[in-house]
Design brief:
YaeB-like fold, alpha+beta, single chain, 5 strands, 90 residues, globular
Length: 90
């Protein structure tokens, strides 16, 4: 059974601000999370196993996985700039 994808308002704005070629790839990756919420290359964030990130060039798609409700919540799409990339996700 596929997972439901939910995107926060912040993540939706982040996607719109991406360069065109990266934006299309980000949308494809996000939509594919419905069938496979832990694709190859997805990594759990240290200290927060329910949070994951997928690398897309210099960008990171950060999402939270709710197994019991079968929901993937996309939190942010940020440029990787160090540990601060993963701060203030909630």
């Amino acid at each position: 059974m596929p997972y439901r994808i939910k995107i926060t308002d912040d993540a939706a704005r982040d996607v719109l601000r991406l360069p065109g070629n990266v934006r299309q790839r980000a949308r494809r990756i996000i939509n594919a999370l419905a069938d496979d919420p832990r694709p190859t290359g997805a990594k759990a964030l240290r200290g927060a196993p329910e949070y994951y990130r997928i690398r897309l060039e210099d960008w990171r798609i950060i999402y939270q996985l709710f197994e019991n409700h079968q929901v993937v919540l996309v939190l942010r799409v940020r440029r990787k700039s160090g540990p601060e990339t993963y701060r203030d996700l909630e």
